[in-house]
Amino acid sequence: MKKIYNLFFLVSALGLLLSSCKRDLVNPVLKTPSGITGFAVSSSQVVLSGANDSATVAKFSWQQPNYGYSAASTYTLLFDVPSDTSGANAWANATKLNIATDSLQKSWLGTDLNKMLNQMGLPFGTASTIVVRLKADVNQSTGAVSTVPSLNAVLSMTVTPYKVVLIFPKLYVAGDFLVPNWTQIDQGGWILASAKSDENYEGYVNFVNAGNSFKLCTQPNWNGTNYGWGGTATTLSGAGNAGNCYSGGPGYYKVNADVKGLTITYTLTKWVLAGDFNSWSLTANPMSFNAATNQWTATGVSLTAGTGYKFVGDGNWTTSFGADTKGNLSYSGGNITVAKTGNFTVTLDLSGGAGNYAYTVK
Fold first, then answer.
1. Do 327 and 319 form a contact (C-beta atoms < 8 A)?
2. Which of its termini does the chain have fewer beta carbons within 10 Å around, N or C?
3. Are strands 151-160 and 45-47 parallel, antiparallel or unpaired?
4. For residue 83, which phi and psi values (nearest 5 degrees)?
């Protein structure tokens, strides 16, 4: 009888212990915070230059949202222009940066911030307003996607980027129409570039004479492959004894060279500014070419914020520049949106070769 009693006592005690443990295992409940607090940037006005490339020019920081327990939070910073932050497609063209899980800050060196602003298509040397959004998300403790909606905090800052020339494979132009002639020089107007590094090169060359002889060189000297006449006006040869390429002129030509297929083409251009401001006229606002700077300029252009325009190189719109989703110049792209109202000087710079085409509005 005593053994039975002891066994009963042992089973009862074990049941109480398990019941106590069960009551102590309470799953945390994920709750929705009221928002993100403390989102700030160390400087709301940043002027970039080569002098502060290696310095920390902006530090974003924020506080951990309270989800009811120690949740692993993920953050995303989105950078955009004010005109893209409202409407049905708000923030659709934003530049996004994922932040390390649970990190509560992100610092930018001058060179990195400037490269991103260049990619956003902001004008060089001009103060522009950008909007930065911090997006916070959290998963369930099991790792499943949370039903708690994303949290957002927004701030604005003024930034002034400077132009960064992206380095792509190049062909150097050497010819009898350049000064000094038959010399390869690594500067705007003298190069073609391969923006995709795929042996297809493009650039704009001002052929100043009625007849212009030249070669395309892989090095800024005569020690590499020097592409010349391939037997016809549209073919190339890399042979050492190849004759000179030839183009008529005078004129400002888009030159495309395929060094794998050994072909070359020339497209004559003469640039105008067309947009809502002049009813998309191809004659009202011709641009003037400056041979010293290799740039096209239109002065006294009256623009209204929110309207659009494009750069057009011929009367048939065969060669024209609009904007891509990041605001960079793109062949046959969408309209370039005017940021603010006023009278401006608009400059088109095609001298850097493919991948480095740029424009400014001042």
1. no
2. N
3. parallel
4. -65, -15
Strands of 295-303's sheet in order across = 288-290, 295-303, 342-349, 358-361
Whole-angstrom distance, CA of residue 63 vs CA of residue 43: 18
Q: Are 248 and 268 in contact (CB under 8 A)?
A: no
* Mean predicted lDDT score pLDDT of the chain: 88
Q: Residue 73: in which H helix or E strand, if any? A: strand 73-80
Distance CA 225, CA 220 (A): 11
Q: In this structure, what are the phi and psi dihedrals at residue 298, rounded to the nearest 5 degrees?
A: -125, 125
The answer, yes or no, to whether the previous bond of 65 is cis (omega within 30 of 0) is: no
Residues 110, 48 contacting (CB under 8 angstroms): yes
> φ and ψ at 285, to 5 degrees?
-130, 70
C-alpha–C-alpha distance, residues 206 and 320, integer Å = 18
Per-residue pLDDT, averaged over 146-174, amounts to: 89
Residues 193, 171: Cα–Cα separation, whole Å: 6
Q: Which domains does the chain have, with CATH numbers?
A: 40-160 (2.60.40), 170-268 (2.60.40.3620), 272-361 (2.60.40)
How many whole angstroms separate alpha carbon 24 and alpha carbon 286?
A: 79
Neighbours of 170 (CB within 10 A): 23
Q: Is 320 left (phi over 0), alpha (psi -120 to 50) or beta?
A: beta
Write down the pTM of the prediction: 0.61
CA distances from 86 to 36, 66, 89, 333 (A): 20, 28, 7, 22
Count Cβ neighbours within 10 Å for each residue of 233-252 and write b for 16 or more, e otherwise.
eeebbbeeebeebebebebb
At residue 96, the pLDDT reads 87
